[in-house]
Amino acid sequence: MSGEKLVKDLSYEAHFQIYKLLLPPALGRDWKTLADKMGYSQETILYYECLNNPVKELISDYESKGKPISELLTFLEEMERFDLKTDLEKYVEETPTPEEREEKIRLELEMKQGQAAEKPKTMSDRYDVFIAYAQPDRPFADELVKKLEAPPYNLKVCIDYRDFLCGNDPMETAAEAIEKYCRKVLLILSENFNRCEKADFQANVALSLSADVRHTNLIPIVYKPCKIPTTLQFITHLDYTKKEARQHFWNLLTMSLGCSNGCANNREI
Length: 269
Prior knowledge:
It comes from Stylophora pistillata (Smooth cauliflower coral). Keywords: Cytoplasm, Inflammatory response. This protein is of the alpha/beta class. The chain folds into two domains: 7-98, Death Domain, Fas; 127-257, 3-Layer(aba) Sandwich (Rossmann fold), CATH 3.40.50.10140. The chain is built from 14 helices and five strands. The protein has helices at 12-22, 31-38, 42-49, 54-63, 69-78, 82-92, 98-117, 138-149, 160-163, 170-181, 191-194, 197-207, 211-217, 243-256, and strands at 127-132, 157-158, 182-189, 218-222, 238-239. Helix 8 links the parallel strand 1 (127-132) and strand 2. Helix 1 runs antiparallel to helix 6 (82-92) and helix 10 (170-181) packs parallel to helix 12.
């Protein structure tokens, strides 16, 4: 029977045709006659007759035994149900063989595994830096991610919209990332940041770390002119607001992150 197409692999439309055309009573040509040809006892046929959809229950049991479509078509021909036989033959061509179905499942599984491998990192990963920002300043945050993750720096950056898993509390996830999995924290300061509850929370988490840790791990970046929060005024910041300062910005930033050109892959986390 290897290579034969099976009844269970027929499409939903094909099954619907079977249910619809065999249900109406027709002496010698309805589902009861088909059940008899399939080898079901009269007692079993009487049982199916008591069910809401006897044809569906019959076909479901029949196909669970791995029966081939060719056998079903033979029974229909013997019953002179050429109408249903002709209808089903239209669906047979598009029905896969067991081998084809298994191959399709295998390919789909490989594709899903490949997609899973490409998914963003989870919080079990270690990161070089976490970026805290207000939503209006996301373009600059994206620029930082792109620059820092590219050669020659090759840093591992954690940013909420990409690296936080769905379904988790974003505040708790941010706190966990800052406290346990990120060596450094960048704060993109602006008036937007000062008004952002999420960014303020993330900054406070970083500030709650021990004094010796936060002085070396917290890097405020003044992205747009703003009032620097009192809690951050004692920490040296990088200025991105002045054009003359920008020529040194990336060099100072990567040095603050503990990475000079070409050394990213040799650092310890």
